[in-house]
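Usage

Read records sequentially. Each one opens with the input sequence:
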Amino acid sequence: MNTTKYYEDNHERIFNAVDHPNWRVWKTTDEYGIVRQAKEQITSPDKLLRFIKKARNPQALYVSISTFLNPQSNHGFFINQKQMTGKGYSYPKPGYLLADCILLDSYFFIDVDSEKGLHIPQRDIWKIIPALAKRKDLKLRQLRFSGTKGFHLEYERVMPECEHPTDRLLAIKEQNKSIADNLKKLDLQTLDKTHLNILQDPFRVCEIGRAHV
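and closes with the structure output:
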């Protein structure tokens, strides 16, 4: 089934729903599960649609929770690109490209889902919201349905004042860890150890549009 029409009908709405889309990393998955990342800045709905159409029957569209100076070339920390081989390890990019990692802003994103019913994520978000409301470095920005399984929570944050790009990223990771540690104490059914580790990643993406197949 060709899924491109869904994005032809919705790409403008998706683009306009994202704050500062030109500073974000965009990715797609196709019918084979192949992930593609945009190699140019997405500065208009038309550019977004052209990027989506590069995927064969695109299944889902993702956007980064953080904004970066050079989103089209951002691949995360160089140390996160380490690839293990049978004889050791290698790095797919030659060198530590600091310019790729100049983070401009970021929000904290929580995906609260359950296959067992909507009542479980509902119960969890009413634990999460009052707990994080006590933090002075977070402010609830948006609560919305993620589909049929749960909710998305987006929080604005107070960005750490660090001049050096690497220090800023490390400070954000430390802030994310502090938030995740708060959530660990809430006995949440929707956030296991894997999810809590993902919450700490400033390079993570969230789903912004899925084709209806």
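Summary fields computed downstream for this record:
- The chain has a mean pLDDT of 89.
- The chain is about 30% helix and 25% strand.
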